[in-house]
Design goal:
Blueprint (H helix, E strand, L loop, with lengths): L1 H8 L13 H4 L1 H14 L21 H11 L24 H119 L1
Length: about 220
C-alpha cells in the first residue's frame, strides 16, 4: 500500500526545459562548447565498435542465390534469356536420326502445350481480369486513404504533444523563475538579518564594555 501511495503521488521532475531555457543565448561561451561537442560527436568513426557483430554472409547454403547476389553487387548485366525453348529446331543432320526427330517432336509437343496454356490464361484474364483489376485498385485506394488519414492523425498528435510540452515547460519555467527570485530575496533577507545581528552584537559588546568602565569609575 505504501508503494502504491508513493507511486500515485509521484510527479515528474524535469531537469531540462528546452522550450524555456535560454542559457545558450545568455552565455555565448557555453554555446561554443556545445557546438564543439556536437562537431566532435558528428565525426564518423573509422572502425566499427567491438560489440558490433561481423557482417552476415547471405545465402551461404544456397550457391545459386549467392552467385546471383554477387552478380548484382558487381553490377553485371542479367544473362540473356534462352529463347531456344520458343523455337522449333529441326535435326541438324540430313537426313536426321531417329533420336533427333524424337527430340524435335517432343519440343513441338511442349511448344503446343505451352501455347494452349497461354490461350487459357488469356481467356481467364479476359473474363475475370477487369473485375479483379478494379477490385485491386479499390483496395489500394482504400489503403492509401487509411494510410494518409493515419499519417495526418499522427502529425496532429505530434503537434499537440509538442504544444502541451511547450506549455508545460513554460509554466514550469516561470514557476522555477519565481521560486528562484523568491529564494534570492530570502537569501538576501537572511544576509541582511545576519549583518544586523553582527552589528547588534558589536553594539552590545561596546555597551557592556562601557558599562564595565563606568562601574570601575
Amino acid at each position: 500500500m505504501a508503494t502504491e501511495t508513493v507511486s500515485s503521488s509521484f510527479t515528474e521532475i524535469y531537469d531540462s526545459l528546452p522550450y524555456y531555457d535560454d542559457d545558450l543565448q545568455k552565455y555565448p561561451e557555453l554555446k561554443e562548447k556545445v557546438d564543439r561537442e556536437m562537431a566532435r560527436e558528428l565525426v564518423q568513426p573509422t572502425s566499427l565498435h567491438p560489440n558490433v557483430p561481423p557482417p552476415i554472409q547471405l545465402f551461404s547454403n544456397n550457391p545459386l542465390l549467392k552467385a546471383e547476389l554477387q552478380r548484382v553487387e558487381a553490377n553485371q548485366s542479367f544473362p540473356p534469356l534462352d529463347s531456344l525453348r520458343y523455337q522449333l529446331p529441326t535435326p541438324t543432320s540430313t537426313p536426321g536420326t531417329i533420336q533427333e526427330w524424337k527430340e524435335a517432336l517432343d519440343n513441338a509437343h511442349a511448344q503446343l502445350q505451352h501455347q494452349r496454356i497461354r490461350q487459357n490464361n488469356l481467356a481467364l484474364l479476359q473474363t475475370y481480369g477487369p473485375n479483379a483489376w478494379r477490385i485491386q485498385n479499390y483496395l489500394l485506394e482504400e489503403t492509401k486513404k487509411q494510410t494518409e488519414k493515419a499519417a495526418e492523425e499522427l502529425v496532429q498528435l505530434t503537434v499537440e504533444v509538442n504544444r502541451d510540452r511547450k506549455n508545460t515547460q513554460d509554466r514550469s519555467g516561470k514557476q522555477l523563475t519565481q521560486l528562484e527570485t523568491r529564494w534570492t530575496e530570502l537569501i538576501s533577507s537572511v544576509l541582511q538579518i545576519e549583518m544586523a545581528n553582527v552589528a547588534l552584537d558589536a553594539e552590545i559588546n561596546r555597551l557592556n564594555q562601557r558599562e564595565a568602565e563606568l562601574a570601575e569609575l
